[in-house]
Design the sequence.
């Protein structure tokens, strides 16, 4: 054990035994250096480690403070030496039903897939909508239909380039949100019956897409913090006829997992070696809480096996339905499939976003959005720790607005949903996130869909319900 | 032969032998009554008959005038007693290529699928876009996503009700244009390998949709003025395992054919008897030149076998990508497929159209649009008659903005396309409108994409090219 780890452990003991309590300030780095006769670097490392354990929180120019209690970290799943048998996907109509139920205005939408639209610069976007459409020459309404608005494609390419992705405007196909991009990419690289690697748990839309295209799913164990199990992926690629992968490398839905860069690099290498295309769903990449934007796997892809999909729906313009695919060698196939299936994304939405981006200020908006979401994550985790039963586990995502909760005891969160809606809260049942419904005791919660007060209120109601159902006392008792 | 037919034939002779020339006024009804000692009703009937033959044109409050010469009417196709063998569809990438090439701003876009956007109330729509989005509560951006904006669905249902379609707002699913609606409906009623009846020639998008879903096409003979051959359809339904039909009953793309109401009724009855669903593409229904809006087959469908698809792209808001499916018992299946494939149509587009419709004035816009398109049809037919080679046949659509031309001699219009683009005109080659490319000597022309002067100019250039290629002299020589 290094010196800084020892120091961190000491503080951890003080926190756990109540000597240091929530909100207490840790001694300053200067003071600790002087008392312990150690270097500032060692103290900083110890404090960083405590921060990464979720025990303390840095406040700019104020120091380190004991963080609000958080539920137990979600244990890593068992990584089976045999991946689960591949299966034909059959996803329940429940997804559509849950989405519909959760849309009721009076319900606190923790089951939603979107953040609160009030977090977005809608007024500014609306002005761009009006003025850009007034200036648009009428023939432009039908000219760029197939591939998308030319200037917008350039702007997206420039933003991707800033993230280290060498994608040309010509490679980009603008789509009706990322959902369509993902579907078109999957269609471009598969034939019915093909085997496709997914994460487990995975975003239900990927299960639906496989069902629609009559593909087989091979769902691999996925670590709640670091993403898909690399050994399992390597084994699957080596031993099974995998025709494609569909992964979220940054702030995975539903876990919120972020793959370390080394894993992203390793996956890019594996794909190239086995010549297997990856559909990379990167819709949450902009919503990072760390100091730097995490790079997608596409940034490590020298051999051109990654089809990268993104959108503006989660970070700027929900409901505008503007996404894109950067599909490399499959670009023309994706473009063709797009023309066949829906012709084009809406022109007004595209020109509005393009005009908005050209005005500047988008990155300022993103900084504020990230800060808000990070604060709300902490509010949510504190509320779960207070109101959910002992034994509850939760992830602590480093970005996005979705977290994953595993409940103790024998509970099926599908059965919980009607009661939760009755109590004015929606949630997304865990069973929707795998083809074999193995996550029935889990749920996905959106901490970006309502503000801090609503979040506390909603999680208190939900916690009471769960305690009632399980007969367990809340963690905080 | 009745008295009025005799009178009409007399005038026809005078027109054909040059006694009456293009633009000459026919004697007034009063004068003709007095000279011939016949009733005004008889004279009117004769003049109506001449009008329906395309020989004279009524000008409001001015009388009847000899119409511009028109090319020969397209002969009805041979109705084979055996329908052609069904086939797996493989449509050429040419469609995407042609669409791309034809999008160049300097080209007169007779190959386009859209009318000139300048014919639409874009300024008014743009104002609706800005103001409706300003008034929209933010949560609405994510609330109505799956099924579409609730008020717009109500407005569409009301418009359909006025046309005799009993469709509830709840049955309607708003889509990314009619293209997506058609694809989703086809998907809802078929499995890979199924046999689907199409028209021959048919809109290339239907061929692409079948290819995408791995369906078999049974293309039935289609009359250039009255649509699909009823006997062939009856025989196919009786003898083959037809799982669905995809038809355009009003102003068919590419022919411009309009089925008589009796045929629509008969088709509705046939479908009910054989329990076969029909996907009805009705995107041109609003663009009728006759006194009444033609009713779609869905209006005759008592047993619920018709999935009706429409959009605002051809009559109001190109590029906004707002269409709908009224899919009856398949509504929820279509909605589910929509959520899976692209989630939703763009909200700004939907609220803008809804706001525009609520203001009134849409029907006035449609009346003007129809009048313009009808005039441009006549300009196009006169220009074809003047510049295209003798032996050219063309349809004379009673609505929409697409007409179908069959060229004489041994010409493949795909080979003509690059030269036409060189000469600054696009066209849609006939080969794209069937799976077996049997219409290689035909082309589809859009008479709504440029104004009368551009239309004359474009068709003169095209006529010269074709005469050069075929070595035939123009009709007018």
Sequence:
């Amino acid at each position: 054990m290094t010196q800084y780890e020892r120091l961190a452990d000491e503080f951890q003991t003080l926190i756990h035994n109540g000597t240091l309590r929530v909100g207490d300030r840790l001694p300053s780095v200067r003071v600790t250096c002087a008392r312990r006769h150690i270097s500032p670097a060692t103290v900083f490392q110890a404090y960083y480690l405590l921060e990464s354990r979720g025990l303390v929180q840095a406040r700019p120019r104020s120091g380190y403070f004991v963080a609000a209690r958080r539920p137990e970290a979600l244990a890593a799943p068992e990584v089976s030496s045999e991946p689960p048998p591949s299966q034909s996907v059959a996803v329940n109509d429940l997804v559509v039903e849950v989405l519909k139920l959760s849309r009721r205005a009076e319900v606190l939408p923790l089951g939603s897939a979107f953040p609160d639209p009030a977090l977005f610069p809608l007024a500014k976007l609306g002005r761009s909508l009006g003025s850009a459409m007034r200036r648009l020459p009428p023939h432009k309404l039908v000219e760029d239909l197939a591939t998308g608005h030319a200037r917008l494609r350039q702007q997206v390419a420039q933003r991707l380039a800033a993230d280290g992705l060498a994608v040309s405007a010509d490679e980009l196909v603008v789509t009706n949100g990322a959902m369509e991009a993902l579907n078109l990419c999957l269609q471009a690289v598969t034939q019915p019956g093909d085997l496709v690697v997914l994460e487990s748990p995975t975003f239900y839309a990927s299960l639906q897409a496989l069902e629609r295209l009559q593909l087989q799913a091979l769902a691999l164990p996925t670590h709640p913090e670091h993403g898909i199990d690399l050994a399992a992926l390597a084994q699957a690629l080596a031993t099974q006829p995998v025709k494609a992968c569909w992964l979220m490398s940054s702030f995975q839905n539903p876990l919120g997992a972020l793959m370390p860069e080394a894993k992203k690099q390793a996956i890019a290498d594996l794909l190239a070696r086995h010549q297997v295309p990856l559909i990379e769903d990167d819709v949450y990449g902009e919503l990072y809480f760390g100091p730097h934007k995490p790079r997608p796997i596409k940034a490590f892809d020298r051999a051109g096996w990654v089809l990268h999909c993104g959108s503006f729906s989660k970070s700027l313009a929900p409901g505008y339905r503007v996404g894109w695919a950067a599909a490399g060698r499959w670009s023309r196939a994706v473009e063709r499939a797009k023309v066949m299936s829906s012709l084009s994304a809406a022109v007004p939405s595209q020109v509005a976003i393009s005009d908005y981006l050209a005005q500047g200020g988008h990155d300022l908006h993103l900084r504020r959005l990230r800060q808000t979401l990070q604060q709300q994550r902490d509010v949510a985790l504190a509320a779960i720790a207070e109101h959910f039963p002992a034994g509850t586990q939760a992830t602590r995502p480093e970005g996005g607005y979705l977290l994953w909760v595993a409940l103790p005891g024998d509970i099926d969160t599908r059965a919980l949903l009607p009661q939760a809606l009755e109590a004015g809260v929606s949630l997304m049942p865990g069973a929707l996130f795998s083809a074999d419904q193995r996550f029935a005791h889990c749920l996905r919660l959106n901490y970006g869909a309502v503000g801090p007060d609503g979040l506390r209120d909603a999680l208190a109601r939900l916690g009471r319900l769960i305690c009632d159902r399980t007969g367990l006392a809340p963690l905080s008792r």
